[in-house]
Write a structure and sequence with these properties.
Blueprint (H helix, E strand, L loop, with lengths): L1 H19 L7 H36 L9 E4 L3 E4 L10 E10 L2 H7 L3 H13 L8 H19 L7 E9 L1
Antiparallel strand pairs: 1-3, 2-3, 3-4
Helix pairs in contact: 4-5
Length: about 170
């Protein structure tokens, strides 16, 4: 019976020893991955906070009376009617265009008025050289706007316009 008691005591000690061992620690790679994930999540949260805080400040500025759209002025130009260059055809084609200039302010309109004949001349000479195929599609109209803007700015230098706008464009 003493032997049985010794065996039982030994088993109890073994069980106590297993309980007394410290629990296994997480592997080092897992700890590094967890730390990196926390940094990414924390960085993302910080970035989101900064972005939304900036939007909130802009919204508060807008409510405070800061204009969202800068005021501009518009100058209507006389209608332009030109025949297009069409060397291979015996039929004449015409371009009728109504143009508006977008300028930064009303004072700039006063500077443009005296040189308006020069602006109209540059339009006429350029538009007469266009072929009907030059005006096809939105890309053609975009190129036309850019070229007319460049020519207006060259004619009224040192003043500058913001854009050339089309009110009407008819190819016939």
């Amino acid at each position: 019976m003493a032997a049985k008691a010794n065996v039982a005591a030994a088993e109890a000690d073994a069980d106590a020893g297993e309980d007394a061992q410290p629990q296994k620690r997480l592997p080092r790679k897992l700890m590094v991955i967890a730390a990196a994930a926390l940094l990414v999540v924390g960085g993302g949260a910080t970035a989101a906070y900064v972005m939304f805080a900036g939007k909130k400040e802009k919204a508060e500025e807008a409510k405070a009376g800061a204009p969202l759209i800068k005021p501009v002025a518009f100058l209507d130009l006389p209608d332009v009617l030109v025949n297009l260059s069409n060397p291979g055809s015996d039929r004449a084609q015409y371009l009728k265009i109504k143009i508006v200039l977008e300028v930064a302010d009303q004072a700039l309109i006063q500077q443009i008025q005296p040189v308006l004949p020069r602006v109209m001349d540059t339009f006429q000479t350029y538009l007469r050289e266009l072929r009907p195929t030059d005006l096809e599609g939105s890309a053609g109209l975009y190129r036309l706007k850019e070229e007319l803007t460049r020519r207006v700015n060259a004619a009224i230098e040192p003043a500058r316009i913001n854009a050339v706008l089309f009110k009407e464009l008819l190819v016939q």
